[in-house]
């Protein structure tokens, strides 16, 4: 089936309001404060958030957490330091598992989530090569991503030649910019996936003009450094639904004052395990000890569900701010804190304290704080895209835009910026793989979740089971 370029339509319907974001710090221990001190302080100063812009109402001198006002907008709330506050004041231990507000409601009549009518990231554009195709599997669909010179765009084809089903991702790019199958040399191009040449056909015949010779082409769009594809090919979906439901948009990724890197990691556990883990901030300081915090910084968490659980996802609130899941892929977090705090903060974890990049960030951030009369708060956004690949396998794309030391971050070698996230993934990889295997046998009844730290985990499981059929729709592949 022919594909359609929906980029113009998507851009015209894009909602440029930034989603709620938040981020988990690991700086508590490093400047003499416990996480309990920060979360329990009572004095407040407010930073108000307006779309992607953050205006300081008063200069804060301490870490910030967030609250929502009566109309649902997010506010940054700075929390001055107070020592000798009991940890138990943060979140009282529960005698019963936390109950979700909408848990008792019948969701059978509510709109269900359609896995096929969604945008999924398939690649980071800067990592693609125009002279060779890329094989990638998303939600059970094998895909071939390649640069189509005739259309001047990246194409997402089904990864099978219509001749004998050979993978087109193993093919080559011709001198005139078409995709050639390596098995028998059939050649394809364009948004329609038309076959332009069959070497075995007589010159006076035209079997290549048959619709049976065409490759399946999926709708795709380039946005903010990512290539996205839409798996649904039903009539009307390409022109209407795909354009009306664009991929998530983040103003920080277009803001030249922000520095960031994008990367990807494929992991040996499923989509549901990946999302669940990212919605669980309580594991950070334990599973990622000395990489993303320290065990001794751990304590109770007062996670709350801030919205109704519905097909599009849900919004939550942690001690450090809003914590959102936008179905099917997006988990967003964010942090805003005064400039002087980042001077003493190891943003890359203990394992990289001696790296030059850390020294440069500390130096530049220190200068910014000392030279500016009214320095704006430092903002670190955390954006994850969680992609189902196949049962027991998933892929995570991420970007961590920040508005300080942007020049340094833009010029740091990519391998250095990849080092810390991969340390994080490695440190709990085995745990999650084993947990998933056990969950297959015991089911969710094997979970015992008596504290508020698991509220968002329970919310995600409710979303998955009540609205999304309990698992991704693999399109009959598995």
Automatic annotation (TrEMBL):
GO terms for cellular component: chloroplast; membrane. InterPro entries: Cholesterol_7-desaturase, PaO, Rieske_2Fe-2S, Rieske_2Fe-2S_sf. Gene3D superfamilies: Naphthalene 1,2-dioxygenase Alpha Subunit, Chain A, domain 1, Rieske [2Fe-2S] iron-sulphur domain. Keywords: 2Fe-2S, Chloroplast, Iron, Iron-sulfur, Membrane, Metal-binding, Oxidoreductase, Plastid, Transit peptide, Transmembrane, Transmembrane helix. It is found in: Membrane; Plastid, Chloroplast. Coiled coil: none annotated. One of its GO terms (molecular function) is chlorophyllide a oxygenase activity. SUPFAM superfamilies: Bet v1-like (SSF55961), ISP domain (SSF50022). This is Rieske domain-containing protein. Its main location: membrane. The lineage of its organism: Eukaryota, Viridiplantae, Streptophyta, Embryophyta, Bryophyta. Residues 119-229 form the Rieske domain. Residues 36-61 are annotated as: Disordered. The keyword Oxidoreductase applies. It comes from the Eukaryota.
């Amino acid at each position: 089936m022919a594909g359609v370029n929906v980029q113009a339509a998507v851009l015209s319907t894009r909602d440029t309001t930034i989603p709620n974001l938040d981020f988990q710090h690991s700086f508590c221990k490093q400047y003499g404060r416990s996480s309990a001190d920060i979360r329990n302080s009572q004095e407040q100063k407010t930073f108000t958030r307006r779309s992607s812009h953050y205006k300081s109402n008063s200069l804060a001198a301490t870490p910030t957490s967030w609250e929502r006002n009566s109309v649902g907008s997010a506010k940054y709330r700075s929390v001055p330091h107070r020592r000798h506050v009991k940890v138990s004041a943060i979140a009282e231990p529960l005698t019963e598992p936390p109950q979700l507000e909408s848990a008792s409601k019948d969701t059978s009549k509510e709109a269900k989530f359609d896995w096929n009518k969604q945008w999924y990231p398939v690649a980071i554009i800067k990592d693609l090569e125009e002279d060779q195709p890329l094989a990638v599997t998303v939600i059970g669909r094998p895909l071939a991503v390649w640069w189509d010179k005739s259309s001047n765009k990246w194409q997402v084809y089904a990864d099978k030649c219509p001749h004998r089903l050979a993978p087109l991702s193993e093919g080559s790019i011709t001198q005139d910019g078409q995709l050639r199958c390596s098995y028998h040399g059939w050649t394809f191009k364009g948004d329609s996936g038309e076959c332009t040449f069959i070497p075995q056909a007589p010159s006076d015949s035209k079997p290549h003009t048959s619709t049976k010779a065409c490759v399946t082409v999926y709708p795709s769009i380039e946005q903010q450094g990512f290539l996205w594809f839409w798996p649904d090919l039903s009539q009307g979906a390409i022109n209407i639904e795909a354009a009306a439901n664009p991929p998530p948009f983040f103003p920080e990724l277009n803001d030249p004052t922000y520095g960031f890197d994008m990367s990807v990691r494929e992991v040996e556990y499923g989509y549901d395990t990946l999302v669940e883990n990212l919605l669980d901030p309580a594991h950070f300081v334990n599973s990622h000890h000395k990489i993303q915090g320290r065990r001794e910084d751990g304590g109770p968490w007062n996670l709350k569900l801030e919205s109704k659980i519905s097909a599009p996802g849900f919004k939550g609130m942690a001690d450090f701010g809003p914590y959102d899941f936008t179905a099917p892929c997006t988990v967003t977090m964010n942090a805003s804190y005064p400039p002087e705090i980042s001077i003493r903060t190891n943003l890359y974890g203990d394992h990289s304290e001696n790296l030059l990049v850390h020294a440069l960030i500390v130096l530049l951030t220190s200068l910014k704080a000392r030279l500016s009369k009214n320095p704006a708060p430092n903002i670190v956004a955390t954006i994850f895209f969680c992609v189902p690949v196949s049962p027991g396998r998933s892929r995570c794309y991420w970007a961590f835009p920040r508005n300080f030391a942007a020049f340094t971050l833009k010029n740091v070698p990519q391998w250095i910026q990849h080092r810390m996230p991969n340390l994080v993934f490695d440190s709990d990889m085995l745990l999650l793989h084993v947990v998933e295997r056990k969950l297959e046998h015991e089911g969710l009844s094997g979970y015992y979740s008596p504290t508020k730290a698991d509220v968002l985990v329970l919310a995600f499981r409710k979303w998955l089971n009540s609205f999304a059929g309990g698992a991704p729709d693999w399109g009959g592949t598995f």
